[in-house]
Write a structure and sequence with these properties.
Elements (H helix, E strand, L loop, with lengths): L16 E3 L19 E3 L18 E3 L18 E3 L21 E3 L18 E3 L19 E3 L20 E3 L8 H4 L10 E3 L11 H8 L5 E2 L2 E2 L2 H18 L1
């Protein structure tokens, strides 16, 4: 509707669900009176900030495809799902960790992040970071409940930054990065629950015996790329691993 002004909404204080997508909004301050709001969608507007008055019951917000440059001023204590894909966010360091203790899903695809620093949220389960410019993995040690991490289409060349405190991570997508050595994959041995790994379109996926070598390094893996590991692959990987361990003695 090409709305630029939503001040009329100030008097509807009991609204629970609001969808203002595909307008021309630059200011959400009239929503600060909506203390019962549970769900807010403001995709495809002209917002340059996600900063809002703290809303005590707000659980889901989608700010997708705006012009937001940072993550400051998002402080809703019951927020579980935050979508910010398709913005211009360069850093997550402004996140209010002390306020977002309920956040479980964070969607940041298609931004301009160069690092994961600042994303250490204790309850986070699903983190989507595809199509950024991430070169370094930092501050991941606080993600103790994370189960799914998408890092497809970034600029990672090393896999430093993963740590044993990420004890719930099961699915890791690293497709189309710059990982050239399978020795980098060995750094994923610190992830005790990792079951699915996607490494397609990395230079290391062209190595001879690629699947077998990954399984030698990560014996608990269930699936690499799109294929489950067969029993005969496991047997061969176990044999190679034992032979190498014998050689090292």
């Amino acid at each position: 509707r090409d709305l630029t002004d939503i001040s009329l909404l100030e008097c509807f204080i009991h609204l629970r669900y609001v969808d203002l997508s595909e307008n021309k909004l630059q200011d959400l301050s009239p929503l600060s009176n909506l203390s019962h709001l549970l769900w807010l969608k403001v995709d495809r507007n002209l917002l340059s900030s996600a900063c809002m008055q703290e809303l005590p019951y707000l659980q889901i917000i989608s700010f997708a495809h705006n012009r937001i440059k940072d993550m400051e001023g998002i402080t809703h204590p019951r927020l579980t799902n935050l979508r910010l894909e398709g913005n211009k966010i360069e850093t997550a360091l402004g996140l209010s960790h002390g306020k977002l203790f309920s956040l479980q899903i964070l969607e940041l695809r298609g931004n301009k992040l160069e690092s994961t620093a600042g994303l250490s949220l204790p309850k986070l389960k699903n983190l989507y970071l595809a199509q950024n410019a991430i070169r370094s993995l930092e501050g991941l040690e606080g993600l103790g409940q994370l189960t799914t991490l998408h890092l497809r289409d970034n600029q990672l060349e090393t896999l430093d930054g993963f740590c044993s405190s990420m004890k719930c991570l099961q699915y890791l997508n690293l497709r189309n990065n710059g990982i050239s050595s399978l020795q980098e994959v060995a750094k994923l041995q610190v992830l005790p629950m990792l079951q699915v790994l996607v490494l397609l379109d990395n230079p290391c996926s062209d190595e001879p015996s690629y699947r077998l070598e990954v399984l030698v390094l990560l014996p608990h893996l269930q699936r690499l790329d799109k294929e489950l590991f067969e029993q005969d692959e496991r047997a061969e990987a176990n044999k190679i691993r034992q032979e190498r361990q014998e050689e090292e003695k």
